[in-house]
DNA sequence: CGTCGTGCAGAAAGCGCTTGCTAAATGGCT
DNA sequence: AGCCATTTAGCAAGCGCTTTCTGCACGACG
């Protein structure tokens, strides 16, 4: 039914070993023989059996990219960049690797299961993107898995995620704290004193770091941090919308709202607008990430640009062993404050 | 070095066969034995060797999802929905499948290569999303691959893509033509007579169908279709921005711009705004797809909503054999016109 | 009390490929 | 002409798992 290596060998009048070598190209084969084999492959429409090959060679060409939410452009952009470097098909010769993205949906269990599945497949490399869940047990479980993967020869790279010490993984970490701090400092510098903060889900490193940066800026300016001015939610538009309504309910004198990311900020804008408030005259709004659509908001969003594509590309290269690991296995990636129309001086009050 | 089935067997004092059966759970094993095996698995921290298993069983648990651009939420949303149904890890019991998304970047070669790679891996199912490239040679090559995949027992589903007859694949097709027509009819009904159209890349089914719908609406209204009012570009914001400038240069008396999708429409809005034109007072703008951010545009975007998540979920279920194929293997999915703030009556002129 | 059905476990034959080693040419030297 | 170094090809032993077939033991039944 299915054509095997042996069939090709028979047709080309050579041994299976030779066919294998022609296909893998890492062993001298006479030009004439090679051609004969290639012709047979073509005529028979032969397709290598991946599992068999992986089993025999004890390696596979699978590269896994784990993302928290594939429907979120934040991850889409990173995944796209990573994958472009992995080569996927169409990459540079020889390294024909299957880059696959796995959507964990932010669930710790799924993250672990995907890691196991990837381990099962003897993946060549794994890239984990985005914030991690801050549960000690889970973090330890993930660390253990990463260690095991590394031991098995799988290259592990973290992109936009805090380092996992002693796991043999390289990490490209976003400076969420610094970016968030710069953002809030900008607002404070403008004269804002009553700022609401819409945080992401609790127990996430990204959420915590951004919040810490925000608070650090407030503290530095001597502004008391009223816990009622912080609301937690998901990293999506809807959540920003609802959280804003809640913040307004708690204190309608807010002059600025800082959001966990751009999508959330967009939701905040919608809520403000519906509440009859102007941006930025009545309330300033700031996001984070600088996703493509942020510049199209009206007014365009003040935010912190994260070099998602660049970081992803670098992570991809490291995963392929095409770029050496950063010193100490850790590199931190800075965000850049983008001041745009959605933030301004607070109204006199 | 690595723990194998045999190691587990030795530890549990049973034969490898028994261990395999416990793990696969499709053969009676006494409870006490099972428990012993499970304990050994746990103690040894055993992880099944995927390739070996796939080789022996002649099947794998890989499901491939092909997308044109993973950084585009259009695909992200569909992929997410598909994957949620595949189960990925965490899906219903037994069906632990590795759903992976493959980014073709819109390149025909990569599409083909990914298909081959998936075939190599003996994938359980493959879902192709989004428009296809309209090159006869390539279409035939893809069809041939799909046929081969189907023969090998891989279930093939097309989602948001025109049917591929005689390939043994199921298709969920978006009614791009109908949606586009309704959209333009809406504009014409408002009184517009000079409409610009920003199309996607040529040679794509989606591009062509949407354009045809637009033209059909114009024709029905007796409006001459001036080719100078159509510009082709990519499916992204940038492209919309540039195309709009070009359209304006060609004819500054346009009263409406219909874009290939929402991202393009957003770019168009930016260009119009920078040109000092108001939306919709001076120029109406319409998009397509109704991605989440569209409602947040100011004014919010009139567009055609495509049930991306629903279609994806259905495609996923079909791919898993959990829902039967639509009659004839083809189902068409309708879009819904969403009239919002970005379209209005044209200025009197 | 012998026989048969049933439930559970093991032996062993692959699945299709890679690769270390060996063998056979080939050609260049002396 | 005889030898050795070089190429190039084949042999065969696995890689780790699944699965068919066989075998054993036990209780039930006539």
From TrEMBL, chains A, B:
Domain of life of the organism in this record?
Bacteria
**Keyword terms:** DNA-binding, Transcription, Transcription regulation
- Answer whether the UniProt record assigns the keyword Transcription regulation to this protein: yes
Checking SMART domains in the record gives: HTH_LACI
Q: Which spans are transmembrane here?
A: none
Q: Give yes or no: UniProt keyword DNA-binding.
A: yes
Per its UniProt record, what Gene3D superfamilies does this chain match?
A: 3.40.50.2300, lambda repressor-like DNA-binding domains
> Taking every annotated instance into account, which residue ranges of this chain make up the domain HTH lacI-type?
3-57
MF terms (GO), sorted A to Z: DNA-binding transcription factor activity; transcription cis-regulatory region binding
For this entry, the protein name equals LacI family DNA-binding transcriptional regulator
């Amino acid at each position: 039914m299915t054509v095997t290596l042996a069939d090709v060998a028979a047709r080309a009048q050579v041994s299976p070993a030779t066919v294998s070598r022609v296909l893998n190209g890492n062993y001298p084969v006479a030009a004439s023989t090679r051609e004969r084999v290639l012709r047979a492959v073509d005529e028979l429409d032969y397709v290598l059996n991946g599992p068999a090959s992986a089993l025999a060679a004890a390696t596979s060409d699978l590269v896994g990219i784990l993302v928290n939410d594939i429907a979120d452009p934040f991850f889409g952009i990173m995944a796209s960049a990573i994958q472009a470097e992995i080569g996927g098909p169409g990459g540079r010769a020889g390294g024909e690797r299957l880059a696959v993205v796995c959507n964990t949906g932010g669930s710790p269990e799924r993250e672990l299961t995907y890691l196991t599945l990837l381990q099962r497949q003897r993946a060549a490399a794994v890239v984990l993107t985005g914030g991690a869940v801050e549960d000690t047990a889970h973090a330890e479980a993930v660390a253990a898995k990463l260690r095991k993967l590394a031991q098995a020869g799988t290259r592990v790279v973290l992109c936009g995620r805090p380092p996992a010490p002693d796991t043999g993984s390289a990490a490209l970490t976003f400076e969420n704290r610094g970016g968030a701090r710069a953002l809030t400092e900008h607002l404070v510098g403008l004269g804002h004193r009553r700022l609401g903060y819409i945080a992401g889900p609790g127990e996430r490193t990204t959420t915590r770091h951004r919040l810490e940066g925000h608070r650090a800026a407030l503290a530095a300016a001597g502004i008391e941090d009223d816990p009622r001015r912080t609301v937690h939610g998901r990293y999506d538009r809807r959540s920003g919308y609802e959280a804003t309504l809640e913040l307004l309910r708690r204190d309608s004198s807010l002059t600025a709202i800082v959001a966990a990311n751009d999508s959330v900020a967009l939701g905040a804008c919608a809520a403000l607008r519906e509440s009859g408030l102007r941006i930025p005259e009545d309330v300033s709004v700031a996001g984070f990430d600088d996703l493509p659509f942020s510049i199209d908001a009206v007014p365009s969003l003040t935010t912190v640009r994260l070099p998602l594509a660049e970081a992803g590309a670098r992570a991809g290269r490291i995963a392929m062993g095409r770029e050496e690991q950063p010193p100490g296995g850790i590199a931190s990636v800075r965000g850049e404050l983008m001041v745009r129309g959605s933030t301004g001086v607070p109204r006199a009050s």
